[in-house]
Amino acid sequence: MSTEDGDRNGHQKRVVTDENIKKIHKMTLESRKLNLNRLADTLKISTVCVYHIIHEYLAMKKLCAKWVPRELTFEVANNDDM
Fold first, then answer.
1. Which helix or strand (DSSP H or E) is residue 21 part of?
2. What count of Cα atoms within 13 Å lies in the side-chain half-sphere of residue 50?
3. Is-above-0.85 flag for pTM?
4. In terms of domain of life, where is this protein from (predicted)?
5. Beta bridge pairs of residue 63
6. d(Cα 27, Cα 76) in Å, to the nearest integer?
7. Residue 39 contacts residue 50 (beta carbons within 8 Å)
8. pLDDT tens figures, 31-64
9. How many CA atoms lie within 13 A of 51 on its CB side?
10. C-alpha–C-alpha distance, residues 51 and 58, integer Å
């Protein structure tokens, strides 16, 4: 008997990758009104993974139907006006 997980057919081992983090960040900056389901459908990953990436890696939260950084700075506020 083994305590290690074996390979599973059809399952991706890790979806929290630098590539997915960058894609989600770019998509949320381009359209801050995107919801988790749309992001998950576009990237073909689960909404739980998208939620985890947004909150843990990008430090964003939903505010008035838009994704914004948790800590707003003067620089971030000025970039949103563009």
1. helix 18-30
2. 20
3. no
4. Eukaryota
5. 66
6. 16
7. yes
8. 877 888 999 999 999 999 999 999 889 988 876 6
9. 5
10. 10
Q: Which amino acid is at 7?
A: D
Residue 64 tokens read as 């008035």
- Name the residue type at position 81: D
Residue with tokens 């990008």: 58
Q: What is the DSSP string of 30-70?
A: H-TT--HHHHHHHHTS-HHHHHHIIIIIS-EEEETTEEEES
Residue whose entry in the numeric block shows the structure tokens 């979806």: 15
Q: For residue 67, with 0-12 CB atoms within 10 Å meaning exposed, 13-18 middle and 19 or more buried, which class applies?
A: buried
Closest CA to 17 of 49, 51, 40: 49
